[in-house]
C-alpha cells in the first residue's frame, strides 16, 4: 500500500489502490478466481475504492453478492460510483464498519482481507468476527505486504486466525506478499 499511513490508508490516496500497474501485479482474477464461484456471497474486507470488489462482483455473477466493507464512507462512495458505471451496483452491498467491529449480518462463502489486517488494532476480535460470518467450509484469504509485514508478524496473525477455529489450507503465491488461505472447520 504505497503512500498509506501506518494506520488506515486515507481515501485521499485511493488513486494509488486502483491502477493498471496494481491490476498487473495483483490481478483479482488470479488471486481470488479459484475461490469464488457464481451465486456465492463474498466479503471484501477493507475494500477501499473497490479494486477487488468489482472483479469479485463479476465472479459471483447475477445471483451472487459481494459485501464490501470499509471504515471510510468516502471509499464506499467511490465504490458505489464505480459499481454503478460498471453495471454491477446490484451485486455489491457497501457496508460502513466501525473501527472495532465489522457489523455485518450476512454469512459468506469467501472473505478477502487484502493488505489490511496489519491495520487492525485487535486482530483476535477482528478474525473471530470474520470466522463467525464464514459458512461451513467458507474460506478466508489473508494477504499482507512483505515490505510492511515481517514474517514473524505474519506468523503471529496466522496463529491468531487458527485460534478462531480456522484451519490453514495453503499459502498461495501473491507477488510481493505473504498469503494464507484458511477454511472454517
Automatic annotation (TrEMBL):
Gene3D superfamilies: Vaccinia Virus protein VP39
Domain Methyltransferase, first and last residues per copy: 37-146
Pfam families: Methyltransf_31
Protein name, per record: Methyltransferase domain-containing protein
Source species of the chain: Methanosarcina barkeri 3
Amino acid at each position: 500500500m504505497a503512500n498509506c499511513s501506518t494506520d488506515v490508508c486515507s481515501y485521499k490516496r485511493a488513486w494509488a489502490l486502483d491502477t493498471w500497474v496494481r491490476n498487473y501485479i495483483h490481478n483479482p482474477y488470479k488471486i481470488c478466481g479459484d475461490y469464488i464461484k457464481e451465486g456465492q456471497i463474498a466479503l471484501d474486507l477493507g475494500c477501499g475504492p473497490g479494486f477487488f470488489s468489482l472483479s469479485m462482483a463479476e465472479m459471483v455473477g447475477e445471483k451472487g453478492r459481494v459485501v464490501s466493507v470499509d471504515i471510510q464512507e468516502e471509499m464506499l462512495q467511490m465504490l458505489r460510483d464505480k459499481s454503478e458505471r460498471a453495471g454491477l451496483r446490484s451485486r455489491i452491498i457497501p457496508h460502513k464498519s466501525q473501527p472495532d467491529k465489522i457489523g455485518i449480518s450476512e454469512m459468506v462463502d469467501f472473505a478477502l482481507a487484502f493488505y489490511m489486517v496489519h491495520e487492525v488494532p485487535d486482530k483476535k476480535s477482528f478474525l473471530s468476527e470474520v470466522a463467525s460470518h464464514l459458512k461451513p467450509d467458507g474460506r478466508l484469504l489473508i494477504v499482507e505486504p512483505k515490505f510492511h509485514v515481517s514474517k514473524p508478524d505474519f506468523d503471529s496473525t496466522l496463529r491468531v486466525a487458527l485460534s478462531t477455529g480456522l484451519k490453514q489450507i495453503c499459502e498461495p503465491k501473491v507477488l510481493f506478499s505473504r498469503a494464507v488461505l484458511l477454511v472454517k472447520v
